[in-house]
User: Which sequence fits this backbone?
């Protein structure tokens, strides 16, 4: 017959399983991030090839395609190692479904490259195609972040996801700006899109700052090359303030691309630091959970089968606020007071899991906010036939006019959903 | 190499695993509910024994103890069958930890019964001990509800948990009222406690009404015996309005106990209807998921390994709002357009999982509200040395004075946590 101690140990084993799974997920997030970076460069170089009608950058693009093929192979190897039979902390179905979408997209990538080779697609078509694939890859990272059951790991994944998403907005900014300079003419809708991308980027980096460990946040703050930044801001100003239809200096195309690329390479270093931290935290947590499990198992061997006594009814209820926390399991004596100490362990565990759950709820709130905002944006796009940039702008405007937070506006939009006419 | 189809199938398998696990959890919830009911009766009869100094109800109590031993054995069998090695949808650790606590409490139950046998404990001590054990059992049901990854199942579990919790408040009301009548004298703190229990009970039943399927809600509304209810309300009025210290008719002790018990037996029937519905929904969902998996597997065999084409970049992004929903998998043709239709399946799956996730968030909100309110209550209890009833009353009062919802007051209390002095 299973005892309380049995389930105490089982609970600890669950924690360890979840940490192991997080370790594997972190590896997946790492290679996904590297492939995203590669595809962002490939997108940019493809645009330069298309923009110059195949006259320039063909070699650089070819090299980049080769690198991406290599990264894709690494991702596929990682996916092959993924145990699709093991349960995945409650959102395995969503994670796998995102992966299925990504694999489909990677399968279609050669066809996309063929369109660029033959100069058959416009810069806009090519950009949109790459962007779609990257957004599929980012969705994999989001699900990974959403699956974390440890608050510290969850914080890191939220920081990492937001940083990656911010970097993707930076990548889209690079592409949009390149296209504008290459076209040699300012264009109001594209300029509005640029502003949207800069704005979204900053919002993501802000969330990253909130959730990132201090060391990595400092790395980002201090690691940015000031000269590059000044260059970038000058060209941003030129791009954003030119009146629609007026001429833009096509010679700025390359300096713009370079400045954006340097900034994105700097971002990659931060991404890698975050990923390394993630791995490190997972390993540290695993080691400590494993030590506790060993201590529990020792108790298990000493389990004399003594009957629990009235102490159960006198002690603080498990998980009650203020219940004895910070008990050091390994330091627990056992023997005559075995049952008493198992009760204490059970209470300590319940209390700790409670605290973890509460912290997790707090971290998750930021992911949930994102989900709500995306849903509201999607609703506006469908109902009012807006582009994403327009829907975003509409909601930002509502937030400013009503002096409310974006999330509050999004909730209001969703609450209105029922009374809106059906789309189309 | 794993293909998109592979992960499409893996995602569906995850869904099936989760449903299977929900089925097992539902069985655990069912027997837990029956044991709770048995312990509630044992608590009531023990009080009558203690109240009459062992002169009455000994036989009835002995019979009830025997029944509880039987139910406990059933629960232990169910726990022995629980696969503690399988991952449990993200909150296995919390569920197992709750079970460890409960097993410890069940181990201590013989000692508690001994105290009652020897008339060594007061009615209050005995009530509190049983109540602690029941609240541990309810925490198991709460974790089960919190683990559901299917919105329909989650709704049922939320309804069931709230109904069980409401019934436990009814049980505590029975015990408190019995003790008051038996003492023959009104007592202000106990009367306040009674009001708190009636109030909490009604709040739980209201949530039950919101989340319960119409059939079961009707069963509850129409199944209540009006004569019993009128009796109960008359005695409630007597208990609550007597001025503190004035005499109460000790002869009402038994009619009160009987009226409360009849009501609780009626509640048990509703509980069982909910549990049956739960099992039925799990089985229906399993069957439909299994059919979809079979359809996917057929696709798998026909997978010609054709390369995905540009269709990927033209179609609606997966999970985008308004993406083609309601595709019938089984009706999908495959063959020449195989890849196209796998892309559609991937999109349909992503869209469906998105919808499920959104619905789940909505249902979960009610569980989260409960967590926040409990946390705030615990904070008040620790910081202001209040009983649970007093903390509850304080928050209700704040909500009324400020014309805010209880959850908003709870959030405000938690936000104040940092500036409060440390407890004790």
Assistant:
């Amino acid at each position: 017959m299973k005892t309380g101690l049995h389930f105490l140990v089982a609970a600890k084993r669950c924690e360890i399983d979840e940490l192991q799974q997080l370790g594997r997920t972190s590896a997946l997030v790492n290679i996904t991030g590297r492939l995203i970076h590669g595809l962002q460069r490939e997108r940019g170089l493809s645009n330069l090839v298309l923009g110059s009608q195949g006259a320039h950058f063909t070699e650089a693009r070819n090299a980049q395609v080769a690198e991406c093929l290599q990264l894709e192979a690494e991702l596929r190897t990682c996916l092959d190692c993924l145990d699709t039979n093991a349960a995945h902390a409650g959102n395995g179905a969503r994670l796998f479904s995102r992966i299925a979408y990504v694999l489909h997209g990677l399968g279609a990538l050669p066809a996309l490259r063929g369109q660029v080779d033959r100069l058959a697609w416009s810069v806009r078509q090519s950009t949109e195609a790459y962007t779609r694939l990257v957004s599929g890859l980012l969705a994999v990272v989001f699900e990974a972040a959403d699956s974390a059951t440890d608050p510290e790991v969850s914080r890191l994944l939220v920081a990492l996801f937001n940083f990656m998403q911010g970097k993707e907005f930076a990548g889209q900014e690079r592409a949009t700006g390149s296209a504008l300079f290459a076209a040699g003419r300012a264009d109001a809708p594209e300029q509005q899109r640029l502003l949207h991308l800069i704005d979204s980027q900053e919002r993501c980096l802000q969330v990253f700052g909130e959730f990132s460990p201090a060391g990595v946040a400092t790395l980002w703050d201090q690691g940015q090359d000031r000269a590059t930044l000044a260059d970038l801001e000058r060209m941003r100003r030129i791009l954003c303030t030119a009146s629609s239809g007026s001429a833009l200096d096509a010679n700025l195309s390359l300096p713009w691309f370079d400045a954006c690329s340097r900034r994105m390479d700097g971002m990659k270093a931060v991404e890698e630091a975050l990923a390394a931290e993630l791995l490190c935290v997972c390993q540290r947590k695993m080691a400590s959970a494993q030590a506790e499990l060993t201590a529990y198992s020792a108790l298990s061997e000493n389990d004399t089968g003594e009957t629990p006594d009235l102490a159960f009814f006198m002690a603080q209820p498990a998980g009650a606020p203020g219940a004895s926390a910070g008990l050091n399991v390994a330091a627990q004596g056992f023997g005559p007071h075995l049952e008493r100490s198992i009760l204490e362990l059970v209470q300590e565990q319940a209390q700790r899991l409670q605290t973890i759950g509460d912290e997790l709820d707090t971290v998750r709130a930021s992911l949930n906010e994102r989900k709500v905002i995306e849903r509201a944006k999607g609703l506006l796009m469908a109902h009012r036939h807006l582009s994403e940039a327009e829907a975003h702008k509409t909601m930002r405007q509502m937030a400013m006019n009503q002096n409310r937070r974006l999330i509050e506006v999004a909730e209001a939009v969703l609450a209105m959903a029922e009374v809106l006419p059906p789309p189309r």
Chain A touches chain B through 88 residues (CB under 8 Å). Residues 319-338 of chain A have pLDDT under 50 and may be disordered. The radius of gyration of chain A is 26 Å. The longest helix of chain A spans residues 253-301.
